[in-house]
Amino acid sequence: ALLADEMGLGKTMQTITAIRLLLRSGQARRILLICPTPLIPNWQREFRTWAEELPVVVMEGNGARRRMLWTMPGVPILIANYELMTRDLTEIPEEEQPKFDLLVLDEFGYVPASKAGAELLFDVIATAYERSSIVLTTNLGFEQWTEILGPERLTGAALDRLTHRCVIVETTGESYRLHDAKRRRRSEPKS
Length: 191
Description:
alpha/beta, 46% helix
């Protein structure tokens, strides 16, 4: 699925709800959530709010610790940032690469990838294609993806794999964060 909308319309909550349902039904046992570094605390907070029963492990620490976390059994949800994912997965031999039933690429395009990062991200998408399910959240239209992945050929190949047998959920409306800020401002006493 591709979840596309402006910020503040509920992509995170929809993703957590889907993860919870997939884990509970047994349709997924291991999930990798990749997001920009600044959003990791948000994901931890939202998992505590919407699915506190689900164990979540954040990829952190030195290389040896992260390698242990990548392969640790019994952890249903791993959260990593894009930089660690690209660095760590290049260092783990292909036959030892961790397997996931669901790959979540959050805020795709938040930070443009380097050439090597874009190629590795494509490799992750290509590897997951037809072997795992992929959820991708973004605020960008397809026409802007070359800004993230670079060459049109690489971007086209990634889009081809991501949109084949895909459900695209595009939401519109006012951001709940913006709506809440306006409501708070109206209710503040005037001095």
